[in-house]
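Continued from yesterday's entry.
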Amino acid sequence: MRYWLFLGILLLAYQCKSPSSASTSDTKEVAEETVVVSKQSIHTFKVEDINGDSFDFSSLKGKKVMVVNTASKCGLTPQYEGLQALYDQYKDSGFVIVGFPANNFMFQEPGSNEKIKTFCESKFGVTFPMMSKISVKGNDKHPIYQFLTEKEQNGVMDSKVAWNFQKYLIDEEGFLVKFCSPKTKPMDEQIISWIEG
């Protein structure tokens, strides 16, 4: 009888210790749920330019970059003029604009890469780098825009592309700094301050 009583006490004492091991397990679960977000650089990306050639973002190391989704038949299309003026003013000071035509909003960029290129050059004298047409939202969102809009990739913030001509600002090391709404004009003071800062 004493033997069974002694065994029962031992078993009870062992069970009393098990919550600490359970709490360790709980701690592990909490630790596993904590997502560590690390910054990725845009310099790791390669895309196709409007001529069908490879464009390596690593070639922009040391430069401030504005990435903007564009369209030829949008009420904001005249921003091409401001973008080109901004590029002309700061291209020799370590700044570049990279345009991505996209047909995601009201089908306002229906043309082929060739038509888009001709339109941009003839209508607005665009000389900053233009890429091939992509999707900037939805299930077929291009990887470069997954990086720009998802905190898990850029390490800074989540965002949605609201319309054509949304502007993403990238620092010299290729890290996302912030974005400006489509209605923010290219020569806006906040953009100028960031370039000159």
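--- second protein ---
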Amino acid sequence: MKRFFLGSIACMFILSTFGQTATKLPDPQPLKSSKMTLMQALQQRHSVREYADKGIGDNTLSTLLWAACGINRPADRRITAPSAINAQDIVVYVCKADGYYRYEADGHKLVKMGSTDLRPAVAGRQDFAKTAPVCLMLVSDLTKFRNPSRSREFGAVDAGYVSQNICLACTALGLATVPRASMDKETLAQALQLGENQLLLLNHPVGWPK
């Protein structure tokens, strides 16, 4: 079964490589989206593993992705999350029922990579995760670091920063999430076209509270 799924992913990759499309997201609205203070978000943050059967609109997703690692200082392209040596190595991938996407902070857009629903691969052996309308995956591009001997360490730390941003943004936006390291990394790495220096570290199922 898994071999069949991997084969399907490979076929979808061949077909989608020629037609990747970029979609500009709505402008993020961090101040209008929530009146919750940072201290309130910290107090209320908790992991949630059940999600309502309700989609996440583009406006909310736009603000969540910007909060994760979007550009907050356009003059020098600095982002919302800290990053070792400003490597900005973390790439966020978005999985939905209609396919999977790569978030690009430059231009604040989603690039569609394929039409396969990868949420079951993100869920792995924990079925609750595939019920979330959106799953975010955090990948560190280790080539962004100058010191190869510490690149994995730096990448893991940077993924933690982005993960915390996602947790707090979800709380402020009224969304539910849980950070996870469990997933079918082999299937996902093939679908996302990851090389040996691109490390899939964490994922976040995201939905509305049930």
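The domain at 2-207 is CATH 3.40.109.10 (NADH Oxidase). Confidence is low (pLDDT under 50) at residues 11-18. Will compare against the first tomorrow.
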